Model the fold of this input.
Amino acid sequence: MSLIMLKDIALPEHFPIPEKLSAEALEADHQLFERVKAALIEHQALLIAHYYTAPIIQRLAEETGGFIGDSLEMARVGKDSALNTIVVAGVRFMGETAKILSPEKTVLMPDLTAECSLDLCCKAEDIKRVKAQHPQATVVAYANTSAEVKAQSDWIVTSSLAVELADYLKGRGEEILWLPDRHLGSYIANNAQTDVYCWPGRCVVHDSFDPSGIEALKRAHPEAKVLVHPESPASVVALADCVGSTSQLLAFSKKDDAPCYIVATERGIFYKMQQACPEKTFIEAAIAPQGVSLDGAKCPWMSLNSLAKILECLEGTEEQKAAHAISVPEDVRVAALKPLDRMLAFAAALKSGHVPQDL
Ligand code: 13P
Ligand code: SF4
Done:
């Protein structure tokens, strides 16, 4: 197998890290919480939240019949829901995915400026050129990309399926042009033992985990196991007892019997981990002191989701509500739907135990 890192890709020099919301905006204001809860119920809106959102937002999803999950599950639930209004608390690609899959539904997001550094690393206008350089390769885009990038891809995949899809494509004799995460690209090349042309993008959070800091934590907590999201560098993955998507890490922490875990993914996941296993200890993995200035393992864009913004999605002025609505141009949507549907079909086939050769 070989990993060929693409060289002529211009990545952003700096990521536009948004200002943090104030402590008041994030704290569990009981009155506001009850108002947003009532609004979701009254407007028959489904709140779909990612594990990385603030605990108060995950609790809101729990108390209103909403959903909390990883990016694959979020896509599936939005599509399968009978409700016509969906509020996606996460980052923009998650809202776009919901809209691509359910164009007839109103898809709202608390903050449309909630980016993802991976998405920012991968401009749609670069794809055509890179595809022309590797015309034989199958383009596999990570879900953390814009609708325009998805529209130019053969497959979409989330971290929960990436190695399985790489294996499947290898079985069909296909080379992979993978975008945009360098670490996940290297992880799938290693695990599926296949050839990957890899985009050099990165997640500001996972790229910052520090292997020597994690080793120090392991020495201090010899009873701890290490859980790692595959957007992390190979040196961090090498320390893991479990590597997987957010849902997969959560599932491992539930069924495993260690008393303590060092967790190399975004801090929001602690809410569900601690809720499922109150007797266990979860420790945030060490972040390298240099690099992007982060508030620990906290995604700056996920942190833009707040109760007040969810309320504005549902009960703001018409102008405010319009500013929360996701729209995707129809030609882009139709083109992006194909690889997304393929991903969902692949996930369903994997679950059933039989994956046809011609998906
Ligand atoms: P999951 O698909 O594991 O939820 O990951 C999404 C993400 O943005 C990780 O940083
Ligand atoms: Fe994107 Fe990283 Fe934030 Fe996930 S944690 S949404 S990959 S920037």
Notes: DSSP finds 17 helices and 13 strands in the chain.
